[in-house]
Amino acid sequence: MAAEIHPRPQTRKPVLLSKIEGFQDVVNTAVIIPKEDGVISVSQDRTIRVWLKRDSGQYWPSVYHTMPVACSCMSFNPETRRISVGLENGTVSEFVLSEDYNQMTPARTYQGDIGFLTICVRFDVETRHAFVGDHSGQVTILKLEQDNCSLVTTFKGHTGNVTALCWDPVQRVLFSGSSDHSIIMWDIGGRKGTAFELQGHNDKVQGLCYASHTRQLISCGSDGGIVIWNMDVTRQETPEWLDSDSCQKCEQPFFWNFKQMWDSKKIGLRQHHCRKCGQAVCGKCSSKRSTIPLMGFEFEVRVCDSCHDSITDEERAPTATFHDSKHSIIHMQYEPTRGWLLTSGTDKIIKVRTAFELQGHK
Description:
This protein is mostly beta strands. The protein folds into two domains: 15-114 and 177-235 and 320-359, Methylamine Dehydrogenase, Chain H, CATH 2.130.10; 236-318, 2-Layer Sandwich (Herpes Virus-1), CATH 3.30.40.10. The chain is built from two helices and 28 strands. Strand 18 (205-211) and strand 19 (216-221) form a beta hairpin. It is found in: Early endosome. Pfam families: FYVE (PF01363), WD40 (PF00400).
């Protein structure tokens, strides 16, 4: 059963600074230009645009370039002012922006020989590792060599597509988001295979950013929610769900346990699982709900009656805050130097906000 999320009211919400409109289709990727009042966008409407803020306070395109097919993704290097744009036909085109961001010069084109594939890729520049998320819900780690790459390992915890990845090279932690609405924190540096779940969205997770200076994770989704997670807490792994033919509390048979049903002359019950202990229980023995924030459950989930009684008010204290972006988010970027948060949505609008919590304003 899908859980219902109840956002908690916050006193210091992200404040909307600007809206950028005028697109004919959705914006697949957009980035804030560091040290500039500017934004670069690539869109399904085939355009690459560089937006600079004018004296009027409005953003206007200083560069407007049309590509032959839709732009699916983009990467920007502020040091070299180089833009790499991925197109839906598999081609990657590179451009260089002028110092004043008013001109864009073509630099190089890489012709693709395959169609567009929706995957997520993140890199660790220092160790030369690549993290790749795919449609099966699997994350693959590759070691990049001079002329090739080698497989390091794979791991899987999602039941849907991997739709977002975020790598923290300091803590050596990888975050993955999925169409199954969940986020998983993979502790790569700990070398113990530890993984923590975060459940805070009721639709596909579309973006993940980590603010290392405040130890907070930002996630956004198609549900329009922006969730800011406190990662400076000791989190607990969710338990594996146990298998049983009868309730592990009252020992009543489940509906497929024909032998026990016949012997006890009782009707079989539906099986559920306690999210805290993982035991297989019947509905009567798991009639209560509770949040378990340290296990990533910021909304109420099913727990067995004994676990419900053992959870303290302190353990129910939230570790995340919820904010409404007012549009279904496709892409998100966090610019840490100014604490700005950019989102683009299905409404074909880019929104730029300040994020008070990420700047240390509580």
